[in-house]
């Protein structure tokens, strides 16, 4: 009986190991297929020329060697942008708990350069992750950066006080250390789901 139980346990262990291996392989294949599909979109292939909140010129090339989570938004956004930045910040904090993971840089690019100068960005981003870096620039520079990621941007009509809302794509982009586009996330993702996906990309990166 003891021998029979040992055989059953060994078979069960082998079956479990095989199932885990096949599941891992299937996930790797799914991620590779999605990566090929996303790469075919040619998002974020070009460079951008913007400035951070200290006035330092920044290009996409400055972040090579680090993973990047990039979100386009604006500081006067009533609810969507704060929610997205909370998710992004939460995901970064979750990933920072594992010191074995590579560096991750969160970036916020304004789509409203008329109101979002360096000082406005610095004040706004204080409420989120301390390493969240804000980028702005001339209207032409901002349009070029948004266009590189095919981010839709449209300023609405001004009210009596001159205020307006900017309609824009609600997506967070993941770039790998080579500056290549790896994935994008909509508003339905939780911070935990976002962190889990980023970790998967980090672990499969070659």
Shape: elongated
Total strands: 9
Which fold name fills CATH's third level, the topology of the largest domain? Answer: Glutaredoxin
Mean pLDDT figure: 88
Domain Thioredoxin: 39-203
Binding site for Cu cation: 77, 81, 168
GO molecular function, one term: metal ion binding
Keywords: Copper, Disulfide bond, Metal-binding
Sequence-ordered SSE layout with sheet pairings:
Elements: H1 2-40, E1 49-52, E2 57-59, E3 67-73, H2 80-96, E4 104-110, H3 118-125, E5 133-136, H4 139-148, E6 153-155, E7 166-168, E8 172-175, E9 181-185, H5 191-204
Parallel strand pairs: 3-4, 4-5
Antiparallel strand pairs: 1-2, 1-5, 3-8, 6-7, 8-9
Helix pairs in contact: 2-5
List keywords for this structure.
2 domains, 5 helices, 206 residues, Glutaredoxin
Q: How would you sum up this structure in a few lines?
A:
One of its GO terms (biological process) is mitochondrial respiratory chain complex IV assembly. This protein has 206 residues and is of the alpha+beta class.
What does this protein structure show overall?
- This protein has helices spanning about 1-40, 80-95, 120-125, 140-150, 190-205, and strands at about 50, 55-60, 65-75, 105-110, 135, 155, 165-170, 170-175, 180-185.
- It is of the alpha+beta class and about 210 residues long.
- The strands form two sheets. It has a seven-stranded mixed beta sheet. Strands 6-7 form a two-stranded antiparallel sheet.
- It has two domains: about 1-40; about 50-205, Glutaredoxin.
- The chain has five helices and nine strands, in the order H-E-E-E-H-E-H-E-H-E-E-E-E-H.
- Helix 2 (about 80-95) links the parallel strand 3 and strand 4 (about 105-110).
